[in-house]
Write a structure and sequence with these properties.
The protein is of the alpha/beta class. It is 36% helix and 21% strand. It contains 13 helices and 13 strands. The chain is globular and about 60 Å long. It binds N-succinyl methionine and magnesium ion (MG). N-succinyl methionine binds next to β1.
Length: 368
């Protein structure tokens, strides 16, 4: 394949409600979409970087910059491009995994569309639909939280994840358990808001039978997580710390986690995400698919990944309506707590031109 150009398209999608985490409140999603044009087909990729470098060091403007100045020019000069050649070609540039992931996904989508192959089958999917969880932001009050959790359970979500931070942890978990019972699959996500000094406080979550606690400590504090794991009976799951299959193998080897959240954008793409799945499976470590408030484009690809055999826990692969009143693709709608895995070529969905145009804030066409 030969890359003939890449369109960078910035869109702004209003959220149906503000989404608050330990690092900030989102009211809209500023997304960078990539359309890779090759001599054989076109493909789409969605960059999961957020507006500000708070979830991780990456942010949308930086992703657009590194793509424009470094990543796209190198791929455009590649004589025989395929998705497996992308990461080696871009390895000369450090970091920027979210930008690299978006570009690799767009190339992979084009390659798969050219030969009529669905992404799910390419990755090794074994399911046609996947059970879905939902991530519930920090609320203004316990009452508001219970209304929100109750609404999501009524919609059919099979697992609830509560965002936590110091001052919003034990009480919200207790309240949800008291109202909805011990059978609800429940987990929490701190987005690195605690330190090892909080170990005894976090152990107060143990009696509530949580599936896991996600990323309690700093992303670089792998040893701290290993020490915390010795204190908690709640299993530790890492998100921000797992930037590659090597990082996953190290974290597992050090005893820092017993569950892994896989986000293709965070680790450089779907091919590395599959390697993480494989490493975890080899160690008997369950994985689940994380979310970054994706539009239908990123969501479609995540559903393909979530259909792999090692994804034994429900992911943050919620319906489009969890975040967006209108999506840029046909919306993903929950059916009995599940979403369908797209079966068409590539990522299996196409942006709707009018919907896409309505939310576009800028476009830029990059040619060799
Ligand atoms: O897509 O449903 C989603 C978001 C799920 O909580 C979610 N993501 O740390 O796992 C995480 C967060 C990162 C984004 S928070 C703005
Ligand atoms: Mg997380």
């Amino acid at each position: 394949m030969k890359l003939t150009g890449v369109e960078l398209r910035r869109i702004r999608m209003p959220l149906v409600a503000p989404f608050r985490t330990s690092f900030g409140t989102e009211t809209s999603r500023d997304v960078l979409l990539l359309r890779a044009v090759t001599d054989e087909a076109e493909g789409w990729g969605e960059c999961v970087a957020m507006s500000d470098p708070r979830y991780s060091s990456e942010y949308v403007d930086a992703a657009a910059d590194v793509l424009t100045r470094f990543l796209v020019p190198v791929l455009a000069a590649h004589p025989r491009l395929d998705a497996h050649a992308v990461a080696p070609a871009l390895a000369q540039f450090r970091g920027h995994r979210m930008a690299k992931a978006a570009l690799e996904t767009a190339v992979l989508d084009a390659e798969l569309r050219a030969s009529g192959r669905p992404l799910a089958r390419e990755l090794g999917a074994v399911r046609e639909r996947v059970p879905c969880g939902v991530s519930v932001g920090i609320a203004n009050s316990i009452g508001e939280l219970l209304d929100s959790v109750g609404g999501h359970l009524d919609e059919g979500y099979v697992r609830i994840k509560l965002k936590i931070e110091p001052g919003w942890d034990v009480e919200p978990v207790r309240a949800v358990r008291e109202r909805f019972g011990d059978d609800v699959l429940l987990q929490v996500d701190a987005n690195a808001a605690y330190s090892l000094a909080d170990a005894r406080h976090l152990a107060r979550l143990d009696p509530f039978g949580l599936l896991l606690i996600e990323q309690p400590l700093d992303e670089e504090d792998v040893r701290g997580h290993a020490a915390l794991a010795k204190v908690l009976s709640t299993p530790i799951c890492l998100d921000e710390s797992i930037t590659s299959a090597r990082a996953a193998a190290d974290a597992i080897g050090l005893g820092a986690c017993s569950i892994v959240n896989v986000k293709p954008g965070r680790v450089g793409g779907y091919l590395e995400a599959r390697r993480i799945h494989d490493v975890c499976a080899a160690h008997g470590v369950p994985v689940w698919c994380g979310g970054m408030l994706e539009t239908g484009i990123g969501r479609a690809a995540n559903l393909a990944l979530a259909a792999l055999p090692g994804f034994t826990l429900p992911g943050d692969t919620s319906a489009s309506g969890r975040y967006y009143r209108t999506d840029v693709t046909a919306p993903f709608v929950l059916d009995d707590g599940h979403l369908p895995v797209p079966a068409g070529p590539g990522i299996g969905v196409d942006p709707l031109p009018d919907e896409l145009e309505a939310v576009t804030t800028s476009t830029r066409w990059l040619t060799p």
